[in-house]
Predict the structure.
Amino acid sequence: MAKDSNPQVLIAGAGPTGLAAALELSRFGVRTRIVEEMEGPGSTSRAIAVQARTLEELEIRGLADQFVELGHRAEGGDIYGDGKLLVHVDFTKIPSRYNFVLFLAQTETERILREALEAQGGAVEWGVKVTAIGLEPSSVTTVLEHADGSIEEVTAAYVIDAEGAHSVIRNTLGLQFKGKTLEETFVLGDVQVDGNLPNSSFHIFSSESGLLALFPFGGSQFRVVASNPPRDLAKAKMPTIEELQALCDQRSHFPIKLRDLTWSSIFHANSRMVGNLHVGRVFLDGDAAHIHSPAGGQGMNTGIQDAINLGWKLALVLEGNTSEKLLDTYDQDRIPVMRSILSRTEAMTNAMGGPSTLRSFFLHLAPWIANSEFAQEIATSRISQIQMNYRNSALSEDHFGDGSLTAGDRVPDITVRIPGKDAPKEATRLSTLLDASRFTLLLANFQNVEALETVRATLGKAASTWLELVDVAKVAAPDGDAGKPFADAFGVKPSITLIRPDAYVGFRGGESSAEDLIKYGDKWFTPAAQRQAA
Ligand SMILES: Cc1cc2nc3c(=O)[nH]c(=O)nc-3n(C[C@H](O)[C@H](O)[C@H](O)COP(=O)(O)OP(=O)(O)OC[C@H]3O[C@@H](n4cnc5c(N)ncnc54)[C@H](O)[C@@H]3O)c2cc1C
């Protein structure tokens, strides 16, 4: 079949980021091509940690169960210093249904995303490399080189660069990838471990010689990672099982016996990002935009969430529902998140295996972390990425002060009651009311029918325009103790909360904020009349 030479969006790269972007766009019906220079799927495990926020987003897309069934849950992490347990990080405290780190090989993550894309009618084009790009005011032309040597020119309305760290597009656009290559060299291996090492936690050993970490995949399978290997090993391409065993013997006080090495590698961690995420109609997502140390398992998760943030915005622009100024909020939302992840992963790497001054500072601080609920909460909610928010984005507008939920926040994983005589008696999880292709307007705590009718009548005036993109749900606190998380988040006064398709709060107001909500909608969306005329 002839390929579409004018897709609406061309995606370069079919790693987890490109696949997530293709999945988002195809769900909205955007004509998309996704090209990948490799001739087939990757076969090495690479990223293994899938974080709670990614699983929450995947749940709304009907994919989380597949991940959880295949992956292995670690409910905590043990950090040891010089032979003693210093900290147990307790992930069960994460305020999410996914209160664990899920370990699953990147090959599996990519397979699930790819199959979901295929189920929506999309497909990766293997053996196709983007070699050049040209920006026009209203399109982007890319040159594609096929595996058989043939050359194709494609003109798309937008291009997503998901090529990973060595992006051709980023280099062609002359975007600086500022940052540094960290001094540390790391070796890794996927192995079976004999011994009594519990697989319900991951284990990090901080020693004078460097860091050693073991991450569980399930059963006796673990990923071993070590920093600062001996000089000869640092120059090797693939560490052997004997070399990995020697590092375990040197740094772990557990009797660990490694066997059956299936993959090993050696790498330097980089800490780099671009200053802006788009140039004209070209957008950078994932490792093409930011790379960091694997400490904390953040890279792939961040890339998938970049794609989710951009996907609905591009789709709405292409549908004519909004102007291109919505696309500027991709940078506003994601640049602060990327900056914060970069500095945290660098700090984590230095603290546990880096220069001795930082390591001794960490060893002193660790017992305080272990005993402080506050510090535990910060550590876990940051690693799980559920604390990430877009409060400072132009798209976040707040007119309300009751409850902790603020415009720009992630929608909390809590239960709600649907009031009304025909509504189900049982409380339901808030996430089940959300649709990843639509906005959701939550009318919370409206006990007074008149107040609710006034809001509805005011919104009704705008119903012919952008409100057709919005589902409306009335919610209230579940009875008894189960109502506390709801009251903490939503307060007790009547409120109106507009949830974006990526499950972040766009607008939050009280019972008299309906006019403000209309203004918010009119600011960001194209009135229906204008859309029909276009
Ligand atoms: C050892 C290791 C462990 C890690 N562990 C974790 C972890 O536990 N959790 C986590 O979140 N992250 C982790 N990461 C990071 C994670 O692997 C990356 O962040 C993730 O792969 C980025 O996905 P991506 O799709 O943006 O880029 P990539 O995975 O690099 O995918 C880019 C794709 O684009 C293709 N491509 C490149 N150039 C072109 C071109 N010109 N034309 C067409 N195709 C092209 C490439 O072949 C590739 O398939 C780890 C990384 C490493 C190395």
